[in-house]
Design brief:
4 copies of one chain form a homotetramer.
Chain A: E1 3-5, E2 7-12, H1 16-26, E3 31-37, H2 41-51, E4 55-57, H3 60-64, E5 71-74, H4 81-90, E6 94-98, H5 105-117, E7 122-125, H6 132-142, E8 149-157, H7 160-166, H8 172-175, H9 177-188, E9 192-200, E10 210-217, E11 222-228, E12 240-247, E13 251-255, E14 261-265, E15 268-270, H10 287-301, H11 310-329, E16 333-334
Helix pairs in contact in A: 4-5, 5-11, 6-9, 9-11
């Protein structure tokens, strides 16, 4: 062997999570953080200087035109996903878009169409699909260890402090419920038949702070998603994320919120992130790194991602868009009735 | 002082829980287990002999006619509550009926009417109202420590082994959801506006093994109830019971399933009951005893129970009956539209 | 039947825990809070007025001379236990002394001698012996479900806030370790052969804030006791109390610190007491009440307490006194070598 | 950039954990699994064939002579570490040895001498030093968030099923206590002054199944290590591993045993490994991978490992060897009295 080809990676969008992408990519063997892009020149300089990135863009189209970039992370506002993803695919790049894929099914379909015709690979960054806790749960389900699924519940709650920063861009129900909608469809392998949802909007931001959705799945299982971005500022949870999958022969309990560490100091108890993207003593660890590794390996080896397909990402958007509609109308929304749906 | 008048107590219905009532009452100071009643003569003899109870009846009407009985536990099938409770109240007894009060609102109303005209006191045995974990949660809410309630979730799941024994008499959603419906109304102090529910029926019994209900309450909070009586036989939970109450300023987490004891033996891990009605070394302890104590004190002191009123018990039945209707029709049920409802 | 004789009870010592005794006794049927005693006249008036207690004493000898008092709680400083207990037993009272029985074995022996000659009953208030979590653990051990015990660990840690108030009277190791020394001897039924201990003394109080003791028991088991009264002020634990008992065939995990309730408010998360002596909505509940009930029943029925004997209480003092000696000398202390010891 | 030099890696010892090394290395970019070695020809063929490794040796000296191997994992019986490590260092290889470094201090010193003179790098695989839960705890300590350490406890307990397979090679106290001895020295930055230990030996294997050690550290902290490889076969724990670090201003709770996943199937509840070396859907994840990555990066960049030094690995062996001596003699062992010790 001897040598491996590195994947030259660009990051579009340098908010806090774009920075996490950049920081993680910069430390990974076989990957070169080759380019960064944001509309804000100061932020661009800050991040590019920190990682010694020579290719710096304030217009993503210029980045797409750069032949020295192979792959991209799109970590922008969800409303911009469609335009950038479609342009990037047409430009021949490999494209990793953060979740949710897009705000609605129509825009998902435009991306899907572009991805079908593209040379580059396409994947939505459903990080939970790379979480060993979740993936081992899926394996246990596939091995038949819990029988047929009867009931699922998922919670993904955050503090007000975080909610306040995000709730002008996306609702709690769409922003985090998308994870669990995807996982429930994946775990069950079943189509959703109907969804009912309620939202609560105690905060001053544009979108509701709290939402609950209840799905009925083909085959009879019920799935319930809880997403409340309004825990007290003093909450010890970085995220209170858990999932229970109850089957006819067994049960699975996933806890992604209590990740093995509690620090009680004068500010009170806190449970820091130890799994998603911690950086103990400067070495990035965790699930985001595994996700980026997976996509890089797909790129290197020229094989389309199978761990999460674009169609699956679209199905999660479809389900949570229907949930949002139910919350707004107060009515049950039926799904999957026409061809090409679900 | 010197002496206290004992309350002479009868138990009608000697299934497993009637036996727990009898056994607890037999050990309590100030209470005399004076009479027992069941249609099954052998069972009657077994229990009456064990506790040395002289007054033994196979017909509850005879017990009601016995002037040496002051108070009653009615621990029969829910479908028999109305008839026995009404007769007992008319006979001048103090009456404690197990939850749910009755299978539907109409029968609740008949009992309420009888209770209004009666000399005796009436209470439904909503045991959770006497659980210190729950009651201290209510106190914290009333003190304003979590602000206004946004979202509540309650789970009360049991193993198949137990489900199988109960699911011919009542559904999981009604049987255990009644606890949480009551608590959510109590915690929030709000009327329910609508309810949507789903049930799953994987088992062979008459009623569904699993149910979820979502309430919208006046004031905007959402309440979600989960009740699955189909956990695997190997589950370590005696009961997996927990509740989260999320407010604008704080959050409360109640865990009634992990009660401080795990025994891992060759059959695997189990978490025995340490709170509801344990009997370590022959001394009954716990919440049921506190509930019976409370009712006995009300009787001794001639004051109507305030910890849970008949109207509140009726409201929980109304809500869960509406949930059951929703589960059967697949439609949202609106509540509380007319005067005098809710 | 009809009537029961009430037990007329006095409380000597009205610090915070004497008040809890008084408050609990005042609410119990079959018990009359008949007398209270403290050297502090204002405190005496406060407590006596609150509960309407007519017999009020600033000298415990006067209380002992009062023929209208049957039984006593001695809730004073541990250094005063011997004198009061001996005098009370000689005065013919039934005596319940808080733990530890006395600060050393010699004083325990004086009490034991007085108790042997007394008309009244005597018990030390080892509350954990009435904790259903602990008692059900003991039952499982006695049933052989975990085989022979190999290893035990017990933790009983408190915040600095509490430690600061208590550490001038007793060390953490003696003050809380006494519980676990007693339980380990009870669980194993074995004599201690040796003990080694370490203490740490970071705080300004008279006694060390933190201690660890390791016992070797006859039969080969190891027992380890941890007692740290120096958790941060922000700790969510009311008490971090847990115990693990590992046997050749099974294992038992007791958690007395996480008792089913977490309240997260603007001061951070806290886990209130729900088991020892909570008073939700004015009704005392819990283990202290069960302990007092048990002693009252023994008094009523004229049978010596068996749930914890004076000899067992003495053995716990002996073991923890040896631990303290080890911590002070840095050497292993051998026990139980002479007849009549251990 | 474009290309990176791969590190060519050999694995000596192909027991179950040598296989985990091989499997992990085979999947890592920038690393080539170049050679494997075991005395057992069939096992050699099995592993080498599975990963397509051309260089196969039954004698480790031949592997050391192979110029196409840069770095090594030594995953043999601990008694063979010294010989192989010394030879490998003399042969100019980079050497990663599994923990413990060696069975005693003398052999550690021989390895240290060889490492000092060697061209290659040397590290002992103290995996916990790469565990984000542990490392973030260390960071919090270094930031002063818990003040000065008072008390530490660590548990690392395993089922009998695993114990039985390992207890002929090493004791529980040495085998797992070595992790926690190292971490306590690292966390506190203090020298051990004394150690006292007890072991229990209920099983039929050569070494004791259970051990407890208590350290006194310079500066006054106490450290207590628990290692019991005798949990019941039905234990849900893959490993029951937790650590508490109590300081004057705060406290840290690490739980490495409950790693976010419980699967309850017909065999009962289990908590699979999700952190150390899980392989969900064929992608290795976790801490072992991070450790190997770190050593590979050190090799690539020619910088000596700083995350754990050979001297630190030796100090852990010294401490646990003293603990073993204490357990055997029943006496306290004093440490660090001579120059060059500790």
């Amino acid at each position: 062997m001897g040598n491996v080809k590195t994947v030259r990676w660009g990051v579009i969008g340098l908010g806090w999570f774009g920075e996490v992408h950049a920081d993680t990519l910069a430390s990974m063997p076989g990957i070169e953080l080759a380019a960064v892009c944001t509309r804000r020149p100061e932020r661009l300089r800050e991040i590019a200087d920190r990682y010694g990135v020579p290719r710096r863009y304030t217009d993503y189209r210029q980045l797409l035109a750069d032949p020295e970039v192979d792959a991209l992370s799109v970590v922008t506002h969800v409303d911009d996903h469609r335009q950038i993803a479609v342009d990037a695919l047409r430009a021949g790049k490999h494209v990793l878009v953060e979740k949710p894929m897009a705000p609605n099914v129509r825009e998902c379909d435009e991306i899907l169409a572009a991805a079908r015709d593209a040379r580059g690979l396409f994947m939505v960054g459903h990080i939970c699909r790379f979480d060993p806790r979740v993936v081992l749960a899926k394996q246990a389900i596939d091995e038949g260890r819990i029988g047929r699924i009867i009931s699922m519940h998922a919670r993904r709650n955050l503090s007000k402090t975080i909610g306040r920063q995000v709730l002008d861009k996306i609702s709690a129900l769409m922003g985090d419920g998308i994870h669990d909608a995807d996982l429930m469809l994946w775990f069950s392998g079943a189509r959703p038949l109907s969804v009912y949802a309620q939202e609560v909007h105690p905060g001053p931001n544009r979108y509701p702070d709290a939402g609950w959705a209840m799905f009925r799945l083909e085959g009879g299982a019920v799935g319930v998603v809880e997403s409340v971005w309004h825990l007290p500022e003093t909450t010890p949870y970085q995220i209170d994320a858990r999932m229970e999958i109850l089957g006819t022969e067994g049960a699975i309990y996933v806890n992604c919120g209590e990740a093995g560490l509690e620090v009680h100091d004068r500010h009170g108890p806190r449970m820091p992130d130890t799994m998603y993207w911690p950086k103990p003593f400067g070495q990035r660890f965790g699930i985001l790194r595994a996700e980026l590794r997976y996509f890089a390996d797909c790129v290197s080896q020229g094989r389309p991602p199978e761990r999460i397909t674009p169609e699956e990402s679209r199905a999660a958007v479809e389900l949570m868009a229907a949930a949002t509609q139910s919350a707004q109308t107060g009515e049950v929304v039926r799904l999957g009735e026409g061809p090409g749906e679900g």
